[in-house]
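Worked example 4.2. Below are the chains of a multi-component assembly; read each line carefully before continuing.
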Amino acid sequence: DGGITQSPKYLFRKEGQNVTLSCEQNLNHDAMYWYRQDPGQGLRLIYYSQIVNDFQKGDIAEGYSVSREKKESFPLTVTSAQKNPTAFYLCASSIGSGGETQYFGPGTRLLVL
Amino acid sequence: DAKTTQPPSMDCAEGRAANLPCNHSTISGNEYVYWYRQIHSQGPQYIIHGLKNNETNEMASLIITEDRKSSTLILPHATLRDTAVYYCIVMNTGFQKLVFGTGTRLLVSP
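Applying the procedure described above to all two chains together yields the following structure tokens:
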């Protein structure tokens, strides 16, 4: 059963804490993406990766970091430098990065305590 | 600079066809029309896409006008689980970040 999984579904962050959101895909897709969605708003691109060991900043990368050590995995770390982290975080993947269809995971909702 | 225009909301009775319109009058020749939907608090779900021919899959049909300035997503037999926000997007080849507009909130009622 192929797809994209994200964990956890809900995550709570304390002030000054770094937290890592997991994204795994078994679709054999080369490209992976992280988006942020705020209530009632559209998607904003945080980071994307077109291939293993390579990634690029999106529109709102400040306060976030990523790694792409394996094709299947693209974890996102929300650092303490991100001052407004409360949002719905969505991971997506596509076969390549040439405009192919992006498929999304179920999302992680991050809340600040 | 919205590339697409959709009605903010629509209602549909369960079992009936839901026809969701989208205007994309400035679409260029190499841009595809994509449809996604997002059920509350879930990740967006890809539905269908097309360039100029009508397309059908197990979820829906996509009808694109001959001049490609508008399209209609058809859910042939809407169910309560089809209640969601539906987004129409135009994208060309090459790397693309997905940009959702405000979409159409479809409410399917018994």
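Take a moment to check your reading of the output against the notes. Chain B is about 0% helix and 45% strand. The mean pLDDT of chain B is 92.
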